[in-house]
Specification:
This protein has 425 residues and is of the alpha/beta class. The chain folds into two domains: 101 residues, Urease, subunit C, domain 1; 303 residues, Metal-dependent hydrolases (TIM Barrel). Helices cover 28% and strands 24% of the residues. The protein has 13 helices and 21 strands. The radius of gyration is 21 Å and the shape is globular.
């Protein structure tokens, strides 16, 4: 058998452990894991690199349909593969919202033309208004596994209970934007000492924690699967930890910025640091890191949120929330988290894949599995330059920051989509 593509000389790490093998790929699948593969039609040099399953982002804003001036599925997927991602879960806060079969099919079709796997999260309620459930069963038949009104939490407890009970019929995951509007309305950053000093209205930690507390109770009541998005506070980590100890079916993610930045970054009113939930205190950052280390928080998500320069270049209280994340997440996690590399990869790859139902296609380097692979040099240092990012948008808060860990190659469904740090289409 002639091997079409061989990844040679790397250190393979996945959930099964670490080994020194070459990876042979044919027709979109891994067909060989051998000490040495010679004579392949094409070879990729992975010397000094880690060969891991492709990363999986369970929280990506691709903006299409409706806001293509900030990002498209094509440009977002290009940024993704440059960051080592081979699968994205597209959030439904588009224009129109992803709340019907027609819009789900549109995004799925655009995803089939992109550089990586684009899965679709559908809205819980029509128009994400919290008033009427979407046709969840119909959307599940199209392949939707995750439902969320991301950007808004489902405020009405009765509506959330109905959604959870409805979703259990097809084992859906309800992914919650954890924010009680009555407490967060009018806030622009974390409520605390920094917001008081700056005179900026704040969003208290309790706005997030009350929603998590409520939905833990609803998950216990219904037996449904609840996932908590972008947890940002120490109290949230404790609530999730206690729920898991009680056997309740909850999972949680943390966004990269919530373990790398604090509310002190907002001291000069730079809107690049405005995000929702807001950047929290150093104590919260320490708690998020501890939650990632002990498994309380299951995954690292990017919450990749592109905005046009004219939208983001507004006064702090008028600028939209959000930051880019796809091209920097792996390096930031490797740089900022004092964790074994296999733990970091689990948080970025096979654990999010399991939560969103992609374990059959992502998250493992094994013969017979789809070839979704990330090759990165964990020791290479580089400096974040917004002008060199693949996204249409440029709203990264990490401009000028030096990080460790650079993606060299990415293979998505057997296609070498990134070679030597350059996207191939």
């Amino acid at each position: 058998m002639t091997i079409q593509l061989a990844i040679r000389g790397g250190r393979v790490i996945d959930a099964s452990g670490e080994r020194r093998v070459d990876v042979g790929i044919n027709d979109g699948q891994i067909v060989a894991l051998e000490e040495s593969i010679d004579g392949a039609a094409r070879e990729v040099d992975a010397a000094g690199c880690v060969v891991s399953p492709g990363l999986v982002d369970m929280h990506t804003h691709l903006r299409q349909p409706g806001k293509e001036e900030a990002e498209t599925i094509e440009t977002g997927s290009r940024a993704a593969v440059l960051g080592g991602y081979t699968a994205l879960l597209a959030m439904p806060n588009t224009t129109p919202a992803i709340d019907s079969a027609a819009v789900v099919r549109e995004v799925q079709e655009l995803g089939r033309q992109s550089l990586c796997d684009v899965e679709v999260a559908a809205a819980v309620t029509v128009g994400r208004t919290g008033e009427q459930l979407t046709p969840m069963a119909e959307l599940a038949e199209l392949g939707v596994k995750v439902f969320t009104d991301d950007g808004d939490g489902v405020q009405d407890a009765r509506m959330m209970r109905r959604a959870l009970e409805y979703g259990t019929a097809f084992d859906a995951t309800l992914s919650q934007h954890c924010e009680v509007d009555a407490l967060s309305e009018g806030g622009h950053m974390n409520e605390g000492a920094v917001s008081s000093r700056l005179g900026v209205p704040g969003i208290p930690a309790e706005a997030e924690e009350l929603m998590i507390s409520r939905d833990v109770a609803l998950a216990r009541l219904t037996g449904a699967k609840v996932h908590f998005q972008h947890c940002s506070t120490a109290g949230s980590v404790e609530l999730v930890r206690a729920a898991k100890a009680a056997g309740i079916r909850v999972t949680a993610e943390a966004a990269t910025h919530h373990f790398t930045l604090t509310d002190e970054c907002c001291a000069d009113y730079n809107p690049m640091f405005k995000v929702n939930p807001p950047l929290r205190t150093a104590a919260d950052v320490a708690a998020i890191k501890a939650g990632l280390a002990d498994g309380t928080i299951d995954a690292i998500a990017t919450d990749h949120a592109p905005h046009t320069p004219e939208a983001k270049d507004m006064p702090f209280d008028q600028a939209p929330c959000g930051m880019l994340g796809l091209e920097t997440a792996l390096a930031l996690a490797l740089t900022e988290l004092e964790l074994p590399i296999e733990t970091v990869l689990g948080l970025l790859s096979w654990r999010p894949a399991a939560i969103i139902g992609l374990s059959d296609s992502h998250g493992a380097i094994a013969v017979g599995r789809p070839a979704n692979v990330c090759v990165f040099d964990p020791s290479e240092s580089w400096t974040v330059d917004p002008a060199k990012l693949a996204s249409i948008a440029r709203n990264t808060p990490y401009a000028g920051r030096t990080v460790n860990g650079r993606v060299r190659h990415t293979v998505a469904s057997g296609e070498l989509v990134v070679t030597d740090g350059e996207a191939q289409r």
